[in-house]
Write a structure and sequence with these properties.
By secondary structure, the chain is α/β, with parallel strands linked by helices. It is built from 11 helices and 17 strands. The two termini are about 35 Å apart.
């Protein structure tokens, strides 16, 4: 596909940070783009917790999107605080406090970031309720996208920003995510300052972690005085079924987790027992390392669709950088194919190096003595 980029239609599948960043920058450069997402609307489901956006990638992308100043108005610099807590005693072993005016990785709620990006797009840019079934065509002409409601559209370039279980990925790769062996059980806390003052004091304004060789607790303050806690454990993927548990059995899950963390301090165990509402199980899946593909005309991937790795604090940042670099390549290239080749020549080596370093593992969250350098003092961005 050698035609020029101008007047060509670009379809982005997935209205997450990567896809929306790409779409925003494309529109700033006058290129035609439509985003398709399976959700009914922008508020169908919770967008999750908090993200730390780094200067060299996430914030760089927002600068190219013309949204950096607004981001700084919404961000929480105090969220850069990080504590390490002793699991046996509940005492703080180490603490990082951000310097006055430090903006290397301020926190922002996922929902606020998504709204910021959505509101920056031209009206009608996002087509909600479009669950992708397939992408057809060989790249000699436009690709055809078929959705679950029976509708079809054509595009000169399909950008897969559709996450871990990407359907666009199937066009370029047979790779499928595999379970990492590490499970995240998520717990939420509301009105933390007033309803959970002891936990607010323990965690501080940012994040706190306690870990040993078998498990970890990762707590993170968010906007609107909320906090989420990840209860991390090496578990089989079907650990609930094996234990005779169901997702709605909050009391049963709580009892099971307390047994797993026997011997941990009572103060830390309140991060397990005092949550508001049910737990949410989030087993960690990763793509084989490395994940690469031969170039295919008319289609490419960004974010988790391209490189699904454990949450080491860089995932969303790299996803937004992907979207930014692809959009800038399209804005500056003579043809769509030239742009995609240039983007993939940069993105694939970068993501491959990171995936190989992690080796598909999430064990860095536990005390195994093999923590990658880039993951030692980071949040979950």
């Amino acid at each position: 596909m050698s035609h020029t980029v101008e007047h060509r239609h670009i379809a982005v599948v997935g209205a997450g940070p990567a896809g929306l960043t790409c779409a925003r920058i494309l529109q700033r450069h006058g290129l035609e783009v439509t985003v398709y997402d399976l959700d009914r609307d922008a508020h169908t489901r919770s967008q999750g917790g908090s993200l730390d956006l780094h200067e060299a990638d996430g914030q760089l992308a927002l600068r190219e999107a013309g949204l950096h100043e607004r981001f700084l108005e919404l961000a929480r610099p105090e969220g850069q605080e990080m504590r390490e807590i002793d699991p046996a005693t509940g005492t703080v072993l180490a603490r990082h406090l951000p310097e006055e005016g430090e903006l290397s990785a301020p926190e922002i709620d996922r929902g606020e970031l998504r709204d910021l990006l959505l509101e920056s797009l031209e009206p009608g840019s996002v087509r909600w309720g479009h669950k992708l079934l397939s992408v057809d065509g060989n790249g000699d002409g436009p690709r055809r996208l078929t959705f679950a409601d029976g509708t079809t559209v054509t595009a000169d370039l399909v950008v897969g920003a559709d996450g871990a279980w990407s359907r666009v990925r199937r066009v370029v790769s047979d790779a499928v995510p595999r379970y990492s062996g590490v499970d995240f059980l998520e717990a939420w806390f509301e009105d933390v300052t007033h309803s959970h003052p002891d936990l607010a004091a323990l965690v501080g304004e940012g994040s706190a972690m306690a870990h040993d060789t078998d498990g970890a607790l990762f707590a993170q303050r968010g906007g609107q005085d909320r906090m989420r806690v990840y209860i991390v454990r090496r578990r089989p993927a079907d650990w609930m079924a094996r234990g005779g548990l169901e997702p709605a059995d909050t009391a049963g899950i709580r009892s099971h987790v307390l047994d797993e963390f026997d011997g941990w301090s009572p103060e830390l165990m309140r991060l397990v027992t005092d949550n508001d509402g049910p737990y949410v199980d989030r087993p960690l899946y990763v793509l084989p390392a490395p994940h690469t593909w031969a170039h295919r005309p008319g289609v490419t991937l960004i974010g988790d669709a391209a490189h699904l790795i454990p949450p080491v604090g860089v995932g969303v940042n790299l996803a937004m950088l992907d979207g930014c670099e692809l959009a800038l390549a399209l804005a500056g290239a003579a043809s769509v194919d030239d742009a995609v080749r240039a983007y993939e020549a940069t993105m694939l080596p970068r993501s491959t190096a990171l995936a190989v370093e992690l080796d598909g593992r999430a064990d860095f969250l536990l005390d195994d003595g093999d923590t990658p350098e880039f993951a030692k003092d980071t949040g979950q961005g």
